[in-house]
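Handoff note, outgoing to incoming analyst
You'll be picking up this chain. Sequence as last confirmed:
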Amino acid sequence: MENVLRPLIVVGGSVLLTLVIGWATDLLLRRADGRQSDTPLWGLLRRGRVPYQLLLCAALLRGSYDEAQLFQDHRVGIGRTLTVVLIGSAAWLVIRIAAAVVETSYTRYASSRAQRDPARVRRVRTQVTLIMRVVSAVVGVVAVAAMLLTFPAFRAAGASLLASAGILGIVAGVAAQSTLSNMFAGFQIAFGDMVRIGDTVVVDGEWGTVEEITLTYLTVRTWDERRITMPVSYFTSKPFENWSRGTPQMTGVVYWQLDHSAPVDEMRDKLRDILRECPAWDGRAYDLSVTDTTPNTMEVRALMTAKDADDVWTVRVTVRERMIGWLVREHPYALPRVNTADALLPPHRPPAPRRSPDGFPNRRAVETPRADRG
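Most recent structure output, in case you need it:
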C-alpha cells in the first residue's frame, strides 16, 4: 500500500502545488495590473504563466523523485529528462520576462515621444526588436548547451570539440561568410540609424514601407500590398532612398504637356484654389512654372508640399486630376493638338547656277534662251 501511495502523493502533490502557486502568482499579477494601469508590465508578465508553471513542476518533481521510488530501473533517464525540461522552461521564462521588460520600456518611451520625435521612436523600435532577437538567440544557445552537458557522452566529447574549435571556427567563418556579413549589417542598420521599421523607402524602383527588420533580412511592404524580402547587407552596400530620414515632409511634382496657348497665369491661380481645398496639402509652399518647350507643346510643372509620402501622393493625384478636368471644361484649346493640315512649302527661289567641272559657273547654263531675248 505504501508503494502505491508514496508515488501518488509525491507526483500529485507536486502537480497540485504547481497549480496553486501558479494561480496565486497570476492573481497577484492581475491585481498589480489593475492597480497600476499606466504600465503594461504586469499584464505582459502574465504571458509567462505556462513556462513558469512548467518550471515549478519540473523542479518539484526533480527534487522529490527519489522519494517517490517510481520506475527505479529508469531513474537516471527520468532524472535527465526532468533536468532537460527544467532547463528549457527556465530559458523560456527568461525570454518572456526579458520581452515584457523591454516592451514596457519601449511603450513608455514611445508614449512620451511619439508626437515630438516619431523618427526616433521608430529607431528605438528597430533596436529593441533586434536586441530581443539577439537575447533570445543567446539564451537559446546557452539552454541547448546546458541540456547537452547533462549527458556524459557530450561532456567527454567536450575536450575534443574545444581542441578543434580553432579549425572549426575558421571553416564555419568561411562557410557562413554571407550569413555573418548580413548579421553585422543588421547591427549596423539597428544602431547606425540607416533605416527603421516604418520608414518609407525606394529600393530597386519599388516604393514601400519597412515592415520587418531581422539580423539577416529586411521586409518592405509595397503600396500594392506586396512584400519584398532582401538581405540587410543590401542597405549597407547599395544606395537607396529613405523618404523618412530626418523629417518626413516631402515636395511633390506634377507635369503636364500643353499647347503653347495654355493660360499659365490662370493655371497658377487654379492650382492655389485646388490646394486650398485639398486636406493633404500642408500649406507650406506651391509653385507652377513652364520648365521646357518643344515645337508642338510646352512642359508645365507644379510643385506642392505635404507632411509625408502618403499625403504627397494624394496631393499629386488630386492636382493632376482636377487641373486636367478644369482645362477640358474651361480651356480646351490648351490641350496638346495634332496638326493635320498640309505643311506650308517655302517660297519659290530660282535654282542655283550649275558649275562646270573646272569649278567656274557654266555660262550656257545660266544664259537666257534665244527665243526669250529681245
